[in-house]
Write a structure and sequence with these properties.
single chain; alpha/beta; 6-stranded mixed β-sheet; 12 helices; 12 strands; globular
């Protein structure tokens, strides 16, 4: 029994993600799902176990020079049990916090001509696949429809790592239930490339979502929506190329999955840029890393006359934990300034 547990923890867990990458396409769906959840979920448990034992060892070291906790307490097996229980509580909290989708509300004004105010619902980073399936997607669509939006925007990463479970569960049909006056539009994310770009595009086409891949569209004769290809494609067009022939007197909204080089939208007179990708790190302290890597890893920003919103995502990659961050959908009231 003990030998089996040791084998599972020491040998299987560290190699489980590699096993998933190598064999998931050839495994039955349930087996691949189990392997995915184990291979991604245990990393969070390992991280917090490591951090708590690091604190424990630090306390033991300091206690040698300044005794502030009796040594017999620090040496007790109950301390180890306490740490294990604390990790379990953190993971339970992280799971429940992930399930609690936050509604973020923004009001954004433009000085440009807008025929009538728009109610936009933005989501990103759905990561549908082995972990997130139909029932969860259905609950998100219900939240979207409850807003009665004019338009729904998806800022990339609809798919997680493979379209196999999406096709198996016919998840394309769920998207057809989204209700919005002007339709649903999306751009590509890096995970659409991870999943196989051709297969990903074929799946998106089945959903009836309007994919903007380095292209733009004039909607309701009122505003432009520009969708950039993901920066995974090193040959994608520049933002300048995409908007140089657009009527700049009309509002220009941009979907760009990865929030790098935010100054480009400001330079090119974009009104709003919507991005995702970062997940705000998903869990602390990884969120500290994303905060350091990106000018804005989550939330609202304004540069000049350009507004930005970087979403932490409604879904999640890997283990279903949100610790120090949250999953969200964003409701934007976009209107013209009345002078």
């Amino acid at each position: 029994m003990i030998t089996g547990i040791f084998f599972f923890l020491v040998l299987f867990l560290p190699s489980s993600f590699i096993l998933f990458l190598l064999f998931s396409k050839n495994l039955p769906l349930r087996s691949a799902t189990f392997l995915y959840k184990i291979s991604t979920g245990w990393l969070v448990i390992l991280l917090y176990t490591f951090l708590l034992f690091l604190i424990y060892d630090g306390v033991k070291f300091l206690n040698k020079f300044w005794t502030f906790i009796p040594s017999d307490i620090l040496a007790s097996n109950y301390v180890i049990l306490f740490i294990i229980c604390l990790v379990a509580i953190l993971c339970l909290y992280g799971y429940m916090n992930y399930l609690d989708k936050r509604r973020i509300h923004l009001k954004i004004m433009t000085n440009k001509s807008l025929i009538k105010p728009l109610k936009i619902v933005l989501i990103s980073d759905l990561h549908l696949g082995y972990s997130i399936k139909g029932p969860e997607l259905k609950s998100w669509i219900k939240k979207i429809n409850n807003e009665n939006p004019d338009i729904v925007l998806i800022a990339g990463d609809i798919i997680d790592s493979s379209i196999i479970p999406l096709n198996y569960f016919n998840l394309d049909n769920y998207f057809k239930d989204i209700q919005s006056r002007l339709g649903v539009y999306c751009c590509l994310g890096n995970h659409e490339y991870i999943s196989g770009i051709a297969d990903s595009i074929d799946f998106i086409k089945k959903t009836k979502i309007n994919l903007l891949r380095d292209s733009s569209v004039l909607i309701d004769d009122s505003f432009y929506l520009v969708g950039r290809d993901d920066r995974t494609n090193i040959n994608r067009k520049s933002l300048k190329e995409l908007i140089e022939n657009l009527d700049k007197t009309k509002p220009i909204l941009v979907l760009d999955h990865q929030p790098y080089h935010l100054e480009e939208s400001e330079i090119n007179q974009v009104d709003i840029q919507f991005s995702g990708h970062t997940h705000q790190g998903q869990i602390w302290p990884i969120s500290l890393l994303t905060n350091a890597l990106f000018e804005k890893s989550h939330g609202y920003l304004k540069k000049g006359n350009t507004h930005y919103y970087v979403s932490s995502g409604i879904g999640i990659w890997g283990g279903r934990y949100r610790i120090g961050t949250y999953s969200e959908y964003v409701v934007i009231d976009f209107a013209q300034n009345i002078l």
